[in-house]
Amino acid sequence: MARKVIIAGNWKMNKSGSEGKALVEDLKGRVAGYNDVDIVVCPPFTTLAAVVKAAEGSNIKVGAQNVHWADNGAFTGEISAGMLKEAGVEYAIIGHSERRQYFGETDETVNKRLKAALAAGLKPIVCIGELLDEREGGKTEAVLAKQIKAGFAGLTSADMNKIVIAYEPVWAIGTGKTATPEMAEETHAYIRKAIAGLFDGTTAEAVRIQYGGSMKADNAAELVKQPDIDGGLIGGASLKADSFADLIKNASSK
Ligand code: PEP
C-alpha cells in the first residue's frame, strides 16, 4: 500500500514569531509543488500564530510540540487541544524523548494527551524510541513494545488511522549519529508488526512511521526508500529553509 511521505520539522525552543514567519515565507517558495509529501512545521507555542498565518494557502501544515489532556482548568503553563485547534494547528507532537527525559512524560501521559488530541481533531505525531543502553542491551524491541502497548491503550483502528508514529532512537537525536537505513528499517518493520498484533494487519499497513534522529538532506532519500519508513521528524535540519527544503526534495519522489 502506498503511504504518503510525511516530513515534519520540530523547531523545539527555537524561533521567535518574526523568525518563524521569515523561515516559512522562504520555505514556501522552495517547496511549492512538492505535493507528494506532507510538510509540517512545529514551532513553539508563542510562534504558532505567526506561522499559521505565513503558511496560509501553501502546502505547509502547522503542528504544536505538545498538548495537554484536559479541555481547560487549573494547569498552569499548559495548552489544550481545543486551543491549538482554534489557533489553526493541525498536528501535535506527543511524547518527544526530550519531554520524557526532562518533563516527566510517561507512556500513561502520552496516552492521555493522545486521546485529547484525537477528540479535538488534531493529528498526533507520537514519538517512541529506545535509549543507547537499551539498544546496546538488546532491549530495543521490548522497550518499543511497552511504549506502543501503553501509549496506544484504549484506541481503535479508526484512531490509529489518524496517528503518525515517529520512531526516534534517543541516541540519534541531535548527536549526528543516524541509525543506518537497514537498522532503522528493521526497527520500523518491528513497530509495524507490533501495531498489527495490537490492532490488525490493515491498520498496521496504513499507519505512517517516520524516522527521527539526525536526518538531513543527504541521508533522507536513502531512509525514505526503505519499505517501512514513511518520512521523518527533523530537529536541527528543519531550522533553516534551505536545508529543510533540500531534505523535503530528497524525500520526494518527484
Ligand atoms: C528530534 O528532536 O525529533 C530530532 C530528530 O532531532 P535531530 O534531527 O536534531 O536529531
Describe the structure.
It is a single chain. This protein is α/β, with parallel strands linked by helices and 254 residues long. The protein has a single domain (5-251), classed as Aldolase class I (TIM Barrel, Alpha-Beta Barrel), CATH 3.20.20.70. It has helices at residues 17-31, 48-55, 81-86, 97-102, 107-120, 132-136, 140-151, 157-160, 181-198, 201-206, 217-224, 241-251, and strands at 5-10, 37-42, 60-64, 91-94, 123-128, 164-167, 208-212, 231-234. Strands 1-2-3-4-5-6-7-8 form an 8-stranded parallel β-barrel, surrounded by 6 helices. Helix 11 (217-224) links the parallel strand 7 and strand 8. The radius of gyration is 17 Å and the shape is globular. The protein starts with a strand and ends with a helix. The model has no long low-confidence stretch (mean pLDDT 97). Phosphoenolpyruvate binds at residues 10, 168, 173-174, 212-215, 233-237.
CATH architecture: Alpha-Beta Barrel
| Total count of domains | 1
The H/E string reads EHEHEHEHHEHHHEHHEHEH
Helix count, per DSSP? Answer: 12
Outline type: globular
The residue fraction in helices comes out at 40-55%
**Bound ligands, named by name, code or SMILES:** phosphoenolpyruvate
Average per-residue pLDDT, rounded, comes to 97
Termini gap: 19 Å
Rg estimate, integer Å: 17 Å
Please state how the strands of the largest beta sheet are arranged side by side.
1-2-3-4-5-6-7-8
